[in-house]
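[job 4471] stage=fold_predict status=RUNNING
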Amino acid sequence: MTWKNRTATAASALLLAAGGMLASASPAAADGPCPANRLCVYDQSGFGGNRIASASTNSCFFPQDFTFGSIVSYDNNLSVDAKVWHYYANTNSYSVARTLVAGGFSSNIGIPDLGVAYGDLVCMGNARP
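[job 4471] inference complete, writing structure tokens
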């Protein structure tokens, strides 16, 4: 085998390996793990899919304001709990659907449609709807 053939074979193998890794990386996995001092919620199990990351310790956000499904997994690297509040339009009221504990994580929360309804909020610290 000539040096040209060996070089071409090695280059092809490297390109195939790199292409396979890039094609299998989910959007969240490509961004890496949840950074320190952040709450990260994901719309797929195993910390995959789309991710919303928040550094605030006293505010709320609407998950529906982002390109995001329901909250399926989370990693809370904040020093405060975060709460997912479900909005009941018929009574114009909120109730806590899930607490995302400070320093906690779950690769599959197991609550269908968490945070997906219009008006649902995620609030960190002492923030309330």
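[job 4471] summary: The radius of gyration is 20 Å.
[job 4471] exit 0
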